[in-house]
Hints:
- The structure holds two protein chains of two kinds.
- Chain A is an alpha+beta fold.
- Helix content of chain A is 16%, strand content 24%.
- Chain A has one domain: Beta-grasp domain (Ubiquitin-like (UB roll)), CATH 3.10.20.30.
- Chain A contains two helices and six strands; from the N terminus they run E-E-H-H-E-E-E-E.
- Chain A has a five-stranded mixed sheet with strand order 2-1-5-3-4, with helices on one face.
- The radius of gyration of chain A is 13 Å and the shape is globular.
- By secondary structure, chain B is of the alpha/beta class.
- Chain B contains three helices and eight strands; from the N terminus they run E-H-E-E-E-H-E-H-E-E-E.
- Chain B has a seven-stranded mixed barrel with strand order 1-3-2-5-6-7-8.
- The two termini of chain B are 22 Å apart.
- The chains are: A alpha+beta, B alpha/beta.
- The interface between A and B is medium-sized, with 23 and 40 residues.
Amino acid sequence: MTIFIPTPLRGFTGGKDSVEVEAATVSDALEQLTQNYADLRKHLFTADGKLRAFVNLYLNDEDVRYLPAKQATAIKSSDTLTIIPSIAGGS
Amino acid sequence: MSSVRLTSAVHAEIRAHGEKTYPHECCGALLGVHGAEGWSIQAAVRAGNTRTDSAHNRYQISPVELLKIERGARAQGLDIAGFYHSHPDHPAQWSQTDLAEAHWLGCCYIITAVEQGKAALTNSFLLAGANEEEKHFENQQIVIDE
């Protein structure tokens, strides 16, 4: 599958805006991604291994948080996974 | 101090958006390319503010809208270079909320003060730092290309 890397994380993927991995589930795909690019791990996961709250994951057009199996969702090689950090703020 | 280049159209657009949504905060994404001298912003994309509970002093872009913006940028050969929002009747200065909610390291956060409905000062801040724990805003010079 193809994982799309957001601008702030491309410094940890050698400048690549997308990375190809072979994986069975969303969780496996993230594991492979962070094995290949180890410095990404601390940006995506907390110290206890949970996905950081501000990291949104979209499997094709679906927010992974709202999929029944969440990160255990099975994936196909034609799927895309997009990593999108959240954006908010205010005065 | 680093700098960020904006086209005059982008500069006008983000200020006009702040006036349009006043007294609520506006928000949107900045699309551009990164070169040796930093970001060059070529387009601004308006987004909806999902913080309808407190839109006068808070903003949030829905993740699904961000996904669409990211795909649109990719189709144009551009990157998400940062984001903009307005501070209605409040200085064009980042707040602790802005910093806490900022996660796009290396990207520009542009803030326009809107005073009584009219766009006033526009400032840019680079989200610097190696990681989430060390992140901080640095003032940026805005260079406007005609």
